[in-house]
Specification:
about 475 residues, FAD/NAD(P)-binding domain, 22 strands, about 35% helix, FAD-bd, FAD/NAD-bd_sf, flavoprotein
Length: about 475
């Protein structure tokens, strides 16, 4: 049998994206702009994003500007200017979180209901490029490409497979299974994800501003309320456009019978959410009780999720690569999960754009480069989300002591320095016109595009060659 020959072509690679979440859709929009063929395959029959509050930071806004989507994002958002407040369950003040100066950051943090961002991204993908009810069953990859088989027994062939299919990624599961057979999977990647908290979340319908005067304020009013030693809950409210309030109730596993009962419950119907809501209706907020907000929230729009986390070592192999929660499941305590999925998409799109000509070796080089460029940045975020979760949601004695020490003894300047460091990472799409830097904060230098550099040099080389031929 003759050996398989690596097929090389000047055509851009065909990218198969498994997962229609924020990361997968954002990658699709970027590839659309880059002129790279792609298709998105979503496992469910319809895309129903969680009805949760979401916060985006300045790290990703330059790319939204490049895509012409920033103004639309701001239209359904409220800026977090005051930073927010932390209170006890008796509504006594614990601390005030200060926001960074606009003149330094260049952008304000924006808060909004997650489904509205999802809808905006989805509307920017051509309908013919999104395929529903396509759950990855397995895939095979070789020198000639990657072939994906779905559970409806259909197949698709492409050059690259992107697993953007979430924390319980089918792409990662099959990839790791193959790597484990070959003895190439790090031991840590076979561990189960850690679960530390359960969250119940939702968004009210339109409320009466006369009863809730915070609704008419231009900026988001955020209140995080921490239970005392006998109450292992944290509950948070945020005002969003449309005279609505997003709410989130978090309970720590291992310190609450209610949380442990919910963890062991396999029945995820709305009635189970209602049971948990009934037990915590009496929790106080500055607006009355949580029960008042529950009553204004459609039960079908209430979601229960586990806060899981794991930093995987293996992000790519052959023609397959992981993105977002499939590669790194971060705790949502700092809004880092969705943000880093979109940052992954930006850096991955840059490396895919640099593939020229398209060959198996060049694809492997691009996917390795993506992982190398992103891994340390995500690893730093991973540790930050753990620390933030302890401060916001932790109820062990050690975590309560930690919260007291930080808010009463650690200088605010130290906290501001850390936020500045995190905000300095702002990669842009190399294949789109760059957005001028906003604010005075020095941003992290970006790795230039090899392809763009070569294409800029080619005309100059042609001029030099023509001049030399006349001598």
């Amino acid at each position: 049998m003759s050996p398989t020959v690596d097929t090389t072509t000047n055509a851009p690679p065909r990218v198969l994206i498994a997962g229609g979440g924020l990361g997968g859709l954002f990658l699709g929009i970027l590839l659309e702009k880059a002129g790279i063929p792609y298709e998105v395959f979503e496992r469910s029959g319809e895309i129903k994003p969680l009805g949760a509050i979401m916060c985006l930071s300045p790290n990703i806004f330059p790319v939204f500007e490049q895509l012409g989507l920033y103004e639309e994002l701001v239209s359904f958002s409220k800026p977090l200017r005051g930073g927010g407040y932390m209170l006890t369950d008796k509504l006594e003040h614990i601390t005030t979180f200060e926001s960074m100066p606009l003149e330094l950051m260049g952008y304000e943090r924006q808060l909004f209901p997650r489904p509205e961002l999802h809808h905006m991204l989805l509307s920017n993908i051509p309908k013919e490029k999104i395929h529903m009810s396509k759950n990855v069953l397995y895939f095979e990859q070789d020198q000639d490409g990657v072939t994906v088989t779905f559970d409806d027994h259909t197949t698709i062939h492409g050059d690259i497979l992107v697993g953007a299919d979430g924390a319980h990624s089918a792409v990662r599961k099959h990839l790791y299974k193959d790597l484990e057979k070959e003895g190439l999977l790090p031991k840590s990647d076979s561990n189960e994800m850690k679960r530390g908290y359960i969250s119940l979340l939702g968004t009210t319908g339109a409320l009466d501003p006369a009863k809730y005067p915070d609704l008419v304020k231009d900026d988001c009013q955020s209140y995080g309320i921490v239970g005392d030693g006998n109450n292992p809950y944290t509950w948070v409210t945020f005002t969003v456009p449309g005279n609505r309030i997003c709410w989130n109730v978090v309970v720590q596993l291992g310190v609450s019978e209610t949380a442990d009962e919910q963890l062991n419950c396999t029945d995820w119907v709305p009635q189970q959410n209602q049971k948990m809501m009934d037990e915590i209706r009496h929790f106080k907020t500055i607006y009355g009780t949580m029960g008042d907000l529950f009553d204004a929230t459609p039960l079908q729009g209430v979601s229960k999720v586990f806060f899981e986390d794991q930093m995987f070592e293996t992000w790519n192999h052959g023609r397959t690569v992981l993105l977002g929660d499939a590669a790194h499941k971060l705790l949502p305590s700092t809004g880092a999960g969705a943000l880093n999925a979109m940052l992954d998409a930006v850096v991955l799109a840059n490396h895919l754009y640099d593939i020229k000509p398209t060959s198996c070796d060049n694809i492997k080089t691009a996917l390795n480069g993506y992982k190398e460029e992103r891994f340390d940045a995500v690893l730093d975020q991973y540790s930050q989300t753990h620390f933030a979760a302890r401060l916001q949601f932790g109820h062990t004695l050690w975590e309560r002591i930690l919260r007291h020490v930080l808010f009463n003894w650690i200088p605010r300047s130290f906290q501001m320095k850390q936020i500045s460091k995190e905000s300095a990472y702002r990669p842009q799409a190399n294949f789109l016109p760059r957005v001028l830097k906003r604010g005075t904060l020095e941003v992290v230098p970006q790795k230039p595009s090899r392809r763009v550099f070569q294409e800029e040099e080619e005309p100059n080389n042609g001029v030099v060659a023509a001049a030399a031929s006349t001598l």
